[in-house]
Protein backbone atom coordinates (compact mmCIF):
# COMPACT_ATOMS: atom_id res chain seq x y z
CA UNK A 1 0.00 0.00 0.00
CA UNK A 2 2.96 2.36 0.46
CA UNK A 3 3.11 2.95 -3.30
CA UNK A 4 -0.59 3.84 -3.35
CA UNK A 5 -0.09 6.57 -0.76
CA UNK A 6 3.10 7.78 -2.45
CA UNK A 7 1.24 8.06 -5.77
CA UNK A 8 -1.52 10.07 -4.11
CA UNK A 9 1.04 12.48 -2.67
CA UNK A 10 2.64 12.83 -6.11
CA UNK A 11 -0.70 13.88 -7.59
CA UNK A 12 -1.16 16.45 -4.84
CA UNK A 13 2.43 17.66 -5.24
CA UNK A 14 1.85 18.26 -8.94
CA UNK A 15 -1.26 20.34 -8.18
CA UNK A 16 0.54 22.37 -5.54
CA UNK A 17 3.50 23.07 -7.83
CA UNK A 18 1.18 24.09 -10.67
CA UNK A 19 -0.46 26.59 -8.30
CA UNK A 20 2.91 28.13 -7.44
CA UNK A 21 3.62 26.74 -3.96
CA UNK A 22 6.68 24.76 -2.97
CA UNK A 23 4.97 22.68 -0.27
CA UNK A 24 1.58 21.86 1.20
CA UNK A 25 0.35 21.43 4.75
CA UNK A 26 -2.53 18.93 5.09
CA UNK A 27 -4.33 19.13 8.42
CA UNK A 28 -7.84 17.73 7.87
CA UNK A 29 -7.78 14.22 9.42
CA UNK A 30 -9.54 12.43 6.55
CA UNK A 31 -7.14 14.02 4.08
CA UNK A 32 -4.11 13.08 6.18
CA UNK A 33 -5.36 9.50 6.27
CA UNK A 34 -5.92 9.45 2.51
CA UNK A 35 -2.36 10.56 1.82
CA UNK A 36 -0.53 8.82 4.66
CA UNK A 37 -2.56 5.69 5.35
CA UNK A 38 -3.37 6.79 8.88
CA UNK A 39 -4.21 9.87 10.88
CA UNK A 40 -2.85 9.85 14.44
CA UNK A 41 -4.76 12.34 16.62
CA UNK A 42 -3.46 15.86 15.99
CA UNK A 43 -1.12 14.82 13.16
CA UNK A 44 -0.47 16.93 10.06
CA UNK A 45 1.24 16.04 6.80
CA UNK A 46 3.87 18.23 5.18
CA UNK A 47 4.08 17.45 1.45
CA UNK A 48 7.39 18.77 0.19
CA UNK A 49 8.68 19.64 -3.29
CA UNK A 50 9.97 16.10 -3.80
CA UNK A 51 8.98 12.66 -2.40
CA UNK A 52 11.78 12.44 0.14
CA UNK A 53 10.62 15.67 1.74
CA UNK A 54 7.18 14.39 2.80
CA UNK A 55 6.85 14.26 6.57
CA UNK A 56 4.11 13.33 9.04
CA UNK A 57 4.36 15.45 12.20
CA UNK A 58 2.46 14.26 15.23
CA UNK A 59 2.19 15.12 18.92
CA UNK A 60 3.44 12.68 21.51
CA UNK A 61 0.89 9.87 21.67
CA UNK A 62 -0.50 8.58 24.92
CA UNK A 63 0.33 4.94 25.59
CA UNK A 64 -2.27 2.69 24.00
CA UNK A 65 -3.85 5.53 22.01
CA UNK A 66 -5.64 3.99 18.99
CA UNK A 67 -4.39 4.87 15.51
CA UNK A 68 -6.85 5.89 12.83
CA UNK A 69 -5.70 3.65 9.99
CA UNK A 70 -2.34 2.08 9.23
CA UNK A 71 0.45 4.50 8.42
CA UNK A 72 2.57 4.20 5.30
CA UNK A 73 5.69 2.56 6.72
CA UNK A 74 7.92 4.35 4.21
CA UNK A 75 6.69 7.83 5.13
CA UNK A 76 9.03 9.77 7.41
CA UNK A 77 7.58 10.75 10.79
CA UNK A 78 8.47 13.26 13.44
CA UNK A 79 6.96 13.05 16.91
CA UNK A 80 6.96 16.25 18.92
CA UNK A 81 7.97 16.06 22.58
CA UNK A 82 5.41 16.54 25.32
CA UNK A 83 4.38 20.19 25.23
CA UNK A 84 6.04 20.57 21.84
CA UNK A 85 3.32 22.80 20.49
CA UNK A 86 1.12 22.64 17.43
CA UNK A 87 2.31 20.17 14.72
CA UNK A 88 1.01 22.56 12.05
CA UNK A 89 3.19 25.36 13.37
CA UNK A 90 6.17 22.99 13.49
CA UNK A 91 5.50 22.03 9.86
CA UNK A 92 5.43 25.68 8.76
CA UNK A 93 8.75 26.31 10.53
CA UNK A 94 10.28 23.28 8.81
CA UNK A 95 9.04 24.45 5.41
CA UNK A 96 10.60 27.88 5.97
CA UNK A 97 13.93 26.41 7.12
CA UNK A 98 14.02 24.14 4.06
CA UNK A 99 13.93 27.19 1.81
CA UNK A 100 10.31 27.02 0.66
CA UNK A 101 8.90 30.41 -0.26
CA UNK A 102 5.27 29.31 -0.36
CA UNK A 103 3.12 26.90 1.65
CA UNK A 104 -0.38 25.85 0.62
CA UNK A 105 -2.63 25.23 3.63
CA UNK A 106 -6.17 23.92 4.07
CA UNK A 107 -7.79 27.19 5.06
CA UNK A 108 -11.20 25.52 5.34
CA UNK A 109 -9.79 23.31 8.12
CA UNK A 110 -7.83 25.99 10.03
CA UNK A 111 -9.19 28.36 12.63
CA UNK A 112 -8.32 32.03 12.24
CA UNK A 113 -6.06 31.77 15.30
CA UNK A 114 -4.20 28.77 13.95
CA UNK A 115 -3.72 30.41 10.55
CA UNK A 116 -2.33 33.48 12.33
CA UNK A 117 0.07 31.28 14.34
CA UNK A 118 1.40 29.73 11.13
CA UNK A 119 2.19 33.15 9.69
CA UNK A 120 3.86 34.31 12.91
CA UNK A 121 5.99 31.15 13.17
CA UNK A 122 7.28 31.40 9.62
CA UNK A 123 7.61 35.07 8.64
CA UNK A 124 8.38 35.50 4.97
CA UNK A 125 6.65 32.24 4.06
CA UNK A 126 3.77 32.99 1.71
CA UNK A 127 0.65 31.13 2.80
CA UNK A 128 -1.70 30.14 -0.02
CA UNK A 129 -5.02 28.30 0.08
CA UNK A 130 -4.83 24.62 -0.81
CA UNK A 131 -8.64 24.76 -0.95
CA UNK A 132 -10.24 21.33 -1.44
CA UNK A 133 -7.47 19.85 -3.58
CA UNK A 134 -7.23 16.66 -1.52
CA UNK A 135 -11.00 16.26 -1.34
CA UNK A 136 -11.08 16.49 -5.14
CA UNK A 137 -8.48 13.73 -5.40
CA UNK A 138 -10.60 11.59 -3.09
CA UNK A 139 -13.74 11.74 -5.27
CA UNK A 140 -12.72 8.91 -7.65
CA UNK A 141 -11.96 5.73 -5.70
CA UNK A 142 -9.57 2.93 -6.60
CA UNK A 143 -10.73 -0.66 -6.47
CA UNK A 144 -9.21 -1.25 -3.01
CA UNK A 145 -11.27 1.63 -1.64
CA UNK A 146 -14.39 0.32 -3.35
CA UNK A 147 -13.71 -3.14 -1.89
CA UNK A 148 -13.77 -1.62 1.61
CA UNK A 149 -17.05 0.14 0.81
CA UNK A 150 -18.47 -3.12 -0.51
CA UNK A 151 -17.65 -4.90 2.75
CA UNK A 152 -19.08 -2.00 4.76
CA UNK A 153 -22.31 -2.30 2.77
CA UNK A 154 -22.46 -6.07 3.38
CA UNK A 155 -22.12 -5.47 7.12
CA UNK A 156 -24.89 -2.87 7.11
CA UNK A 157 -27.15 -5.21 5.12
CA UNK A 158 -26.53 -8.00 7.63
CA UNK A 159 -27.29 -5.80 10.63
CA UNK A 160 -30.50 -4.47 9.09
CA UNK A 161 -31.62 -7.92 7.96
CA UNK A 162 -31.28 -9.32 11.47
CA UNK A 163 -33.25 -6.46 12.96
CA UNK A 164 -36.13 -7.14 10.60
CA UNK A 165 -36.40 -10.69 11.94
CA UNK A 166 -36.94 -9.50 15.51
CA UNK A 167 -40.03 -8.25 17.33
CA UNK A 168 -40.32 -4.49 16.85
CA UNK A 169 -43.67 -3.40 18.32
CA UNK A 170 -43.26 -1.73 21.70
CA UNK A 171 -39.53 -1.02 21.35
CA UNK A 172 -38.24 2.53 21.28
CA UNK A 173 -36.43 4.25 18.43
CA UNK A 174 -33.42 4.71 20.69
CA UNK A 175 -33.29 1.04 21.64
CA UNK A 176 -33.47 -0.10 18.02
CA UNK A 177 -30.73 2.33 16.98
CA UNK A 178 -28.41 1.06 19.72
CA UNK A 179 -29.10 -2.53 18.73
CA UNK A 180 -28.29 -1.82 15.10
CA UNK A 181 -24.99 -0.19 16.03
CA UNK A 182 -24.08 -3.19 18.19
CA UNK A 183 -24.88 -5.55 15.33
CA UNK A 184 -22.65 -3.53 12.99
CA UNK A 185 -19.68 -4.13 15.30
CA UNK A 186 -20.64 -7.78 15.80
CA UNK A 187 -20.38 -8.29 12.03
CA UNK A 188 -16.94 -6.72 11.73
CA UNK A 189 -17.44 -2.97 11.44
CA UNK A 190 -15.04 -0.61 13.18
CA UNK A 191 -18.17 1.24 14.27
CA UNK A 192 -21.17 3.07 12.88
CA UNK A 193 -20.46 5.31 9.90
CA UNK A 194 -22.71 7.98 11.45
CA UNK A 195 -25.32 8.11 14.22
CA UNK A 196 -27.97 5.54 13.31
CA UNK A 197 -31.41 6.99 12.62
CA UNK A 198 -34.58 5.09 13.53
CA UNK A 199 -37.81 7.00 12.97
CA UNK A 200 -41.32 5.73 13.66
CA UNK A 201 -44.83 6.98 12.95
CA UNK A 202 -44.91 10.78 12.49
CA UNK A 203 -41.09 10.89 12.67
CA UNK A 204 -40.60 8.52 9.70
CA UNK A 205 -39.08 9.86 6.51
CA UNK A 206 -37.18 12.65 8.22
CA UNK A 207 -33.58 13.02 7.06
CA UNK A 208 -31.15 12.81 9.99
CA UNK A 209 -33.84 12.12 12.60
CA UNK A 210 -32.35 11.53 16.04
CA UNK A 211 -33.96 8.54 17.77
CA UNK A 212 -36.30 9.28 20.66
CA UNK A 213 -38.13 7.24 23.27
CA UNK A 214 -41.19 6.92 21.03
CA UNK A 215 -42.25 3.27 20.80
CA UNK A 216 -43.06 1.39 17.62
CA UNK A 217 -46.81 0.99 17.13
CA UNK A 218 -49.00 -1.03 14.79
CA UNK A 219 -49.65 0.84 11.56
CA UNK A 220 -46.46 2.93 11.78
CA UNK A 221 -44.07 3.64 9.00
CA UNK A 222 -40.61 2.68 10.29
CA UNK A 223 -37.65 4.42 8.61
CA UNK A 224 -34.14 3.22 9.33
CA UNK A 225 -30.87 4.77 8.12
CA UNK A 226 -27.54 3.27 9.11
CA UNK A 227 -24.05 2.68 7.83
CA UNK A 228 -20.90 0.77 8.67
CA UNK A 229 -17.34 2.04 9.00
CA UNK A 230 -14.92 -0.57 7.66
CA UNK A 231 -11.22 0.30 7.61
CA UNK A 232 -12.20 3.96 7.51
CA UNK A 233 -14.62 3.69 4.58
CA UNK A 234 -18.27 4.48 5.22
CA UNK A 235 -21.43 3.38 3.44
CA UNK A 236 -25.09 4.24 3.95
CA UNK A 237 -28.39 2.41 3.61
CA UNK A 238 -31.93 3.55 4.36
CA UNK A 239 -35.18 1.63 4.19
CA UNK A 240 -38.80 2.21 5.16
CA UNK A 241 -41.19 -0.50 6.35
CA UNK A 242 -44.73 -0.74 7.69
CA UNK A 243 -45.50 -2.20 11.10
CA UNK A 244 -48.50 -4.50 11.01
CA UNK A 245 -50.21 -6.92 8.70
CA UNK A 246 -50.92 -4.58 5.78
CA UNK A 247 -50.06 -0.99 4.86
CA UNK A 248 -52.76 1.65 4.39
CA UNK A 249 -53.52 2.91 0.89
CA UNK A 250 -51.80 6.26 1.52
CA UNK A 251 -48.67 4.43 2.70
CA UNK A 252 -48.56 2.28 -0.44
CA UNK A 253 -49.05 5.33 -2.66
CA UNK A 254 -46.33 7.36 -0.95
CA UNK A 255 -43.90 4.44 -0.91
CA UNK A 256 -44.37 3.70 -4.60
CA UNK A 257 -43.77 7.37 -5.39
CA UNK A 258 -40.48 7.56 -3.48
CA UNK A 259 -39.42 4.20 -4.89
CA UNK A 260 -39.98 5.51 -8.43
CA UNK A 261 -37.93 8.62 -7.65
CA UNK A 262 -35.13 6.55 -6.16
CA UNK A 263 -35.11 4.22 -9.17
CA UNK A 264 -34.87 7.19 -11.54
CA UNK A 265 -31.95 8.58 -9.55
CA UNK A 266 -30.14 5.25 -9.56
CA UNK A 267 -30.61 4.77 -13.30
CA UNK A 268 -29.19 8.24 -14.04
CA UNK A 269 -25.82 7.38 -12.45
CA UNK A 270 -23.69 7.23 -15.59
CA UNK A 271 -20.26 8.74 -16.23
CA UNK A 272 -20.71 12.23 -17.62
CA UNK A 273 -24.09 12.85 -16.00
CA UNK A 274 -24.34 16.20 -14.26
CA UNK A 275 -24.70 16.17 -10.49
CA UNK A 276 -27.80 18.34 -10.75
CA UNK A 277 -29.20 16.07 -13.48
CA UNK A 278 -29.17 13.10 -11.10
CA UNK A 279 -30.99 15.22 -8.53
CA UNK A 280 -33.48 16.39 -11.16
CA UNK A 281 -34.22 12.83 -12.32
CA UNK A 282 -35.44 11.90 -8.86
CA UNK A 283 -36.86 15.25 -7.78
CA UNK A 284 -39.10 15.84 -10.80
CA UNK A 285 -41.11 12.72 -9.94
CA UNK A 286 -41.75 13.99 -6.41
CA UNK A 287 -42.44 17.52 -7.62
CA UNK A 288 -44.99 16.31 -10.18
CA UNK A 289 -46.86 14.54 -7.38
CA UNK A 290 -47.08 17.75 -5.35
CA UNK A 291 -44.25 17.08 -2.91
CA UNK A 292 -41.85 19.86 -3.87
CA UNK A 293 -42.02 21.31 -0.36
CA UNK A 294 -41.82 18.01 1.56
CA UNK A 295 -38.97 16.30 -0.34
CA UNK A 296 -35.41 16.12 1.01
CA UNK A 297 -33.09 19.00 0.01
CA UNK A 298 -30.65 16.81 -1.93
CA UNK A 299 -30.88 13.46 -3.67
CA UNK A 300 -27.49 12.13 -2.60
CA UNK A 301 -23.82 12.66 -1.92
CA UNK A 302 -20.44 10.99 -2.15
CA UNK A 303 -19.15 8.55 0.47
CA UNK A 304 -15.70 7.30 1.39
CA UNK A 305 -13.44 8.22 4.29
CA UNK A 306 -16.25 10.55 5.33
CA UNK A 307 -19.95 9.82 5.11
CA UNK A 308 -20.76 13.08 3.36
CA UNK A 309 -18.19 13.82 0.66
CA UNK A 310 -18.22 15.38 -2.77
CA UNK A 311 -20.02 15.16 -5.07
CA UNK A 312 -23.27 16.64 -3.82
CA UNK A 313 -26.28 15.57 -5.88
CA UNK A 314 -28.37 18.68 -5.35
CA UNK A 315 -30.30 21.17 -7.51
CA UNK A 316 -27.47 23.72 -7.56
CA UNK A 317 -24.49 21.35 -7.76
CA UNK A 318 -21.96 21.89 -10.55
CA UNK A 319 -19.88 19.15 -12.10
CA UNK A 320 -20.24 15.75 -13.74
CA UNK A 321 -19.89 12.19 -12.52
CA UNK A 322 -16.84 10.07 -13.26
CA UNK A 323 -16.63 6.29 -13.18
CA UNK A 324 -15.64 4.74 -9.84
CA UNK A 325 -17.36 7.44 -7.79
CA UNK A 326 -19.45 6.00 -4.91
CA UNK A 327 -22.57 7.98 -4.09
CA UNK A 328 -25.84 7.64 -2.24
CA UNK A 329 -29.25 8.02 -3.84
CA UNK A 330 -31.68 8.85 -1.04
CA UNK A 331 -34.87 10.69 -1.98
CA UNK A 332 -37.56 10.94 0.64
CA UNK A 333 -40.81 12.63 1.54
CA UNK A 334 -41.99 13.52 5.04
CA UNK A 335 -45.60 14.53 5.65
CA UNK A 336 -45.82 16.56 8.88
CA UNK A 337 -47.88 14.77 11.50
CA UNK A 338 -48.19 11.58 9.44
CA UNK A 339 -44.71 10.37 8.63
CA UNK A 340 -43.02 9.49 5.40
CA UNK A 341 -40.70 7.38 3.32
CA UNK A 342 -36.98 7.41 2.70
CA UNK A 343 -35.11 4.91 0.51
CA UNK A 344 -31.32 5.14 0.49
CA UNK A 345 -28.69 3.10 -1.36
CA UNK A 346 -24.94 3.34 -1.82
CA UNK A 347 -23.84 2.73 -5.40
CA UNK A 348 -20.67 3.06 -7.48
CA UNK A 349 -20.84 4.81 -10.84
CA UNK A 350 -19.67 2.41 -13.55
CA UNK A 351 -19.43 2.51 -17.33
CA UNK A 352 -22.33 0.88 -19.18
CA UNK A 353 -19.86 -1.67 -20.57
CA UNK A 354 -19.08 -2.65 -16.98
CA UNK A 355 -22.73 -3.23 -16.12
CA UNK A 356 -23.79 0.29 -15.14
CA UNK A 357 -24.19 1.48 -11.54
CA UNK A 358 -22.97 -1.09 -9.02
CA UNK A 359 -25.44 -1.44 -6.15
CA UNK A 360 -23.58 -2.04 -2.89
CA UNK A 361 -26.54 -2.09 -0.47
CA UNK A 362 -28.82 -4.94 -1.49
CA UNK A 363 -31.47 -5.23 1.25
CA UNK A 364 -34.84 -5.50 -0.46
CA UNK A 365 -36.68 -2.31 -1.34
CA UNK A 366 -40.05 -4.09 -1.34
CA UNK A 367 -42.53 -2.49 1.06
CA UNK A 368 -42.49 -5.08 3.82
CA UNK A 369 -45.09 -5.33 6.56
CA UNK A 370 -43.21 -6.37 9.69
Poorly predicted parts: none
Across the major sheet, the strand order is 4-3-2-1-5-6
Structural class: alpha+beta
Number of E-type strands = 19
- What is the string of helix and strand elements? HEHEEEHEHEHHHEEEEEEHHEEEEEEE
Strand residue content:
15-25%
Mean pLDDT, to the nearest integer, reads 94
Q: Give Rg in angstroms.
A: 23 Å
- Overall 3D form: elongated
Discrete helix count: 9
- Terminal CA distance: 45 Å
**Portion in helices:** 25-40%
Largest sheet: 6 strands, mixed
Note down, in words, how this protein is organized.
- The chain starts with a helix and ends in an 11-residue tail after the last strand.
- The strands form six sheets. It has a six-stranded mixed sheet with strand order 4-3-2-1-5-6, with helices on both faces. The chain has a three-stranded antiparallel sheet with strand order 7-10-11.
- The chain has helices spanning 2-18, 29-36, 87-97, 112-121, 133-138, 143-164, 173-186, 249-267, 275-288, and strands spanning 23-26, 44-47, 55-58, 76-79, 102-105, 126-129, 191-192, 197-200, 221-226, 228-230, 233-234, 237-242, 300-302, 309-313, 326-329, 332-335, 339-342, 345-348, 358-359.
- The chain is an alpha+beta fold and 370 residues long.
- α3 packs parallel to α4, α6 crosses α7 and α8 packs antiparallel against α9.
- The chain is 33% helix and 20% strand.
- A hairpin with a 7-residue loop joins β2 and β3 (55-58).
Amino acid sequence: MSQVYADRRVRLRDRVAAAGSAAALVSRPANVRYLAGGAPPGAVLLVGPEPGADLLIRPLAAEGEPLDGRLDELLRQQQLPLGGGDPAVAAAELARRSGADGLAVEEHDLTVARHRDLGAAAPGLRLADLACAVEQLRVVKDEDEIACLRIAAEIADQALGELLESILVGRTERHLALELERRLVDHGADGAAFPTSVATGPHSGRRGHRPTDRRVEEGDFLSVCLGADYHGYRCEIGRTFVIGTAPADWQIELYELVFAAQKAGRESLVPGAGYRDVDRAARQILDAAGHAETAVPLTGHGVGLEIDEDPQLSPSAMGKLDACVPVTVEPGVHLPGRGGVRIDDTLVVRQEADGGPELLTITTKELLAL
